[in-house]
Amino acid sequence: MTFRSKAFEIAQGRVAPVLTPPTEKVADLYASNTFSDDVMRTLLSPEAYTKISNAIRSGSTIDREVADEVSAAMKSWAISKGATHYTHWFQPLTGTTAEKHDSFFDLTLDGKAVEKFKGSALVQQEPDASSFPSGGLRATFEARGYTGWDPSSPAFLMDNGAGGKTLCIPSVFISYTGEALDYKAPLLRSLVMLDKAATSVCQFFNRDVDKVTPTLGIEQEYFLVDKALYYARPDLLMAGRTVFGHSPARGQQLDDHYFGSISPRVNAFMVDFEFEALKLGIPVRTRHNEVAPGQFECAPTFEEVNLAIDHNALLMDLMQKIGDKHNFQVLFHEKPFAGINGSGKHNNWSLSTDTGINLLAPTTKPKENLRFLTFLLNVVKAVHDHADLLRASISSAGNEHRLGANEAPPSIVSVFLGGELTSMLEELVNKGEITLEKGENFYYKLGITRIPNLQRDNTDRNRTSPFCFTGNKFEYRAVGSAQNSASPMIVLNTIVANQLMEFKREMDERLSAGEEKKVATVEILKRYFKESKRILFEGNGYSEEWIATAKERGLSNISATYDALYAYVTESTIQAFEKMGVLSSRELHARYEIELENYVKKLQIESRVIGDLALNHIVSTVIKYQFKLAQTARALTDLEMLEEAEPIKEIIKDISSHVVVIKRLVHEMTEARKTANNVDVLFERAKLYGSEVKGYFEEIRYHVDKLELLIDDEDWPLAKYREMLFLE
């Protein structure tokens, strides 16, 4: 029995485990493993609690005395729930999370064992900064870096899987010289600036608004593969995606997996990770089968952006851990299988005031609608002016396989508003008036009396648009499933904050000149609409016609990651980010270098995996199979069964033709890789990898996949698509 057939037998034999659901109600279970506001209110003195609450709401400084009291309470709470260690949990520019565990256990000078956790340990730790990507901000010998406690994201307890728990403290990560080496630090800066800018614009419409909070809901798509079959695919193990694999006869063409019945084994995994997520305060609410076989999605309730991003990063880590318990490998790669849909991470973003208003929700009241249009058009203008930067924020080697692949938003950044809103804006430009009627036309009349009236949203949803308005929020659909959502949110927050400040500047000038507020607002918005109209698109973003139309409009269509990333270091980007105080020119150049380097390394790994699998797994297996065929053909020829031997000889020739091409292409790809590796300029090296080395991937795959159809099923060394995708 081959390794592959044994793996398939193991996978087929698995059954859904019997889960014991928690005895608590979900409401009681929720956030039970977090140092939540309720826990702080119970354990802290009123003075300390007030200072912490103010710091979370307004960003005021936490003094060391308060930090000492919080750390004592946090230690007491964590130990009472089984924690033995603590860590600063942070998000370096590796794209994953990081942690360094320290024990509460310590010894006094006289050798007595104590449990210790001071305020200084809560506020700051020192991991080795030289071992994380810095883009030249730190030299290899410059090791010092700092993690710093983020009190706005609750500390939580993570089960170690071996009986103990670790207290995890969400933190920023900076270099010794103060530059951000993570996603959280610039994200927090961008949120502060967006709050400031949006609140100042709100003041034109409502003086009661003191704070604006960006909110985010992240829909997470993923694939599940049985662990045994995962280990039977070295490419999945090493590169996160299958570099070879012929499409099965049945893929997703029947559309029967989408929203279909969830199998018991998958459902058990979902239930298990959802309960654990709820304990960590992650408000997961939705689960369903996605379009592709073996693909699924989960989604939470909307949260403040910083918390939502922390929770998504934590959720991905949690899903992998729970997947191990259920003998599943969770695949977050944007395109793990060819020929079927890849995975995204749809980011649903909106703006809410401390008075309970969603600034991106239209109403029927003229004054409120003018406020809505102000924020709507400022977002559209920001996306229009910085479309290339927004495209750069979701660029990666993995997402490059997915974007524009007739399953995901194209590389062209466009904005969908819907027919009603577009007409409304046209009316604003042509007449200077705004009307939004709501009446019976917003209800479907089905002609079935037992069915209640179904309300129609004021906009449709366009799944082919990368950045679409969906009624009361914008959905950035182009984000990759493996990506940290902080990257696109840092960009979106910053460009919108920058644009809102520009709007306020123009309004202040007009009002100082004596212009009436409504007139000034409408005149500015009319100009914004005219200047940004070319980025609005209502049709099919997957069509060839849109590509041609976008080119006529002068919109960018940047398909290559190495080209897209350059937007991080353009003059307009640096100017906007430095003006907002989110990232300096030095930090932006560092991130550009890190992303390019990561792109090169990912393609380098894939290239090596392709070469190894093609020569050491496929070709070697094929040659052995050829020998069997040759023996059979020879035996038939010896028996003078020439006609019967002829088809076998043809198969041998077909196999040989593919083997010859594979060996040649692998050699050429290896030489192209060597050439690229010897190029000193990082952009040129990335370009060679993206255009030359990567250019061999599909060619080699074509011939390997043809061999999969020629070789006996029992002899084929790699787990096949039908085996991995259709397990219940």
Automatic annotation (TrEMBL):
GO molecular function, one term: glutamine synthetase activity
Alphabetized SUPFAM superfamilies for the sequence: Glutamine synthetase/guanido kinase
GO BP of this protein: glutamine biosynthetic process
Domain GS catalytic: residue ranges: 183-618
Alphabetical list of Pfam families matching this protein: Gln-synt_C, Gln-synt_C-ter, GSIII_N
Boundaries of every GS beta-grasp domain copy: 84-178
Stored SMART domains: Gln-synt_C
UniProt family annotation: Belongs to the glutamine synthetase family.
Protein name per Swiss-Prot or TrEMBL: Glutamine synthetase type III
Organism per entry: Dyadobacter psychrotolerans
